[in-house]
Design a protein that fits this description.
The chain is mainly beta and about 375 residues long. About 10% of the residues lie in helices and about 35% in strands. Strands 18-19-20-21-22-23-24-25 form an eight-stranded antiparallel β-barrel. Strands 6-7-12-11 form a four-stranded antiparallel beta sheet, with no helix packed on it.
Length: about 375
């Protein structure tokens, strides 16, 4: 397929596969390989990938469909006659039949899908990554500075129902959330990812929304400002030439806080009722009574303990543990990411305090049960009973 330039081949793939022509060339070929199930060998050149995709689509050299092989039968007055059959005079008039082009199946685009996860790759081929070493974020918190890298290096984040944007892949440390310094919405204000969400997840500094119309990210309380890039990540006015526009797969809508389809930080939802929080089970779904069994302090068996959960929001619930009729534990649980929840100190009517030590966490499994793990405390499973 050397008759076409690489850009021309990419344009054909965009047209055939409904890919935005403004997409970076590398991403065009990556999406085409994925849609056409073409195995992408790391050693393949961009030209080879383009040729492989065009071959699957049946596109020949110079962008034309290969000609159909001529058949060995001619239709004569409605009856098939072999062309090699002898002809006896006087010859029977043969009605010339016009060639019928092969039917071309129209491309049907995939139905739109929604996701709350996004790799922070920019439309121009760059991507947001994190520095390797963490820094002090004051008051015992830690943070990682944001750096500009390639699209391949970009981290993947999860937009949560409460507005937090957590790191879920692409770095050696996960769970940290995007943090707008001091919650200021002034032009030029910086950002990093930090652990402040563990105690201040509802603060404006840690709540963002994705703008699907232009691929930008805004503080939830300042939609006219977006993340931009100068010498570092900073806020700029929407439309500024420094704004960062992220590449979203065609036909995909990124769900984030501020959308009508996502519950707000207090668990509300447009249209009434409680929606599942983006990226995992809602705190409202985890309310009620749960039966727990496992071990405490690694050796003491726990059988038949009752756990009663009280929802506080889509990303927060309070849990009371009972041994018989006696209350034994009082813990707040807040979403860390997806279906993973971290434990915090505090009574039923208290605000969550410090995070509980020993690495205590709960994970909601696909079958609806929860597994609790820790280094020294309770390790076991919880099954909902009411």
């Amino acid at each position: 397929m050397g008759d076409l330039s690489l850009r021309a081949k990419a344009d054909i793939l965009c047209e055939q596969l409904n890919i935005d022509r403004g997409t970076v060339l590398v991403n065009v070929l990556a999406q085409a390989c994925e849609q056409l199930a073409v195995r992408s060998d790391p050693n393949m050149s961009l030209v080879d990938k383009a040729d492989a995709c065009l071959s699957v689509l049946g596109i020949g050299p110079a962008g034309a469909a290969p000609p159909q092989a001529a058949g060995g039968i001619t239709v004569v007055q409605g009856r098939p006659v072999e062309t090699s059959a002898p002809v006896h005079y006087p010859a029977v008039p043969v009605a010339a039949m016009p060639a019928v082009p092969a039917a071309v199946q129209p491309h049907v685009p995939a139905p739109p899908r929604t996701t709350n996860r996004l790799k922070l790759a920019l439309r121009d081929g760059r991507g947001l990554a994190l520095e390797h070493s963490s820094v002090d974020a004051t008051h015992g918190r830690r943070a990682f500075h944001i750096r500009m890298g390639t699209a391949h290096e970009a981290i993947e984040v999860e937009f949560r129902a409460n507005g937090n944007v957590g790191v879920v892949s692409g770095h050696h440390t996960l769970g940290y959330c995007l943090d707008n310094w001091y919650g200021r919405t002034d032009e030029g204000n910086r950002q990093h990812v930090s652990t402040w969400y563990r105690t201040h997840g509802s603060a404006d500094a840690l709540r963002f929304t994705f703008n699907n119309d232009d691929g930008t990210v805004s503080p939830l309380n300042a939609r006219h400002m977006v993340l931009g890039w100068g010498a570092h990540s900073l806020l700029v006015r929407r439309g500024d030439h420094r704004q960062m526009q992220f590449a979203v797969p065609p036909g995909t809508n990124v769900v984030s806080a501020g959308d009508a389809t996502v519950g707000d930080a207090d668990g509300g939802h447009a249209g009434g009722g409680h929606a599942a929080a983006a990226g995992g089970a809602s705190g409202h779904d985890l309310g009620g009574c749960w039966l727990a069994w496992g071990t405490c302090c690694l050796v003491i068996p726990v059988l038949g303990a009752m756990i009663c959960n009280t929802p506080k929001s889509a990303d927060h619930y309070h849990s009371c543990g009972f041994l018989g009729l006696c209350p034994a534990t009082s813990t707040h649980w807040k979403r860390a990411h997806g279906n993973v929840w971290y434990a915090y100190e505090g009574g039923p009517d208290d605000a969550p305090g410090n995070q509980v030590g020993c690495g205590v966490q709960r994970e909601v499994k696909p079958d609806g049960t929860m597994c609790e793990t820790s280094a020294m405390c309770f390790n076991g499973c919880l099954c909902k009973v009411g």
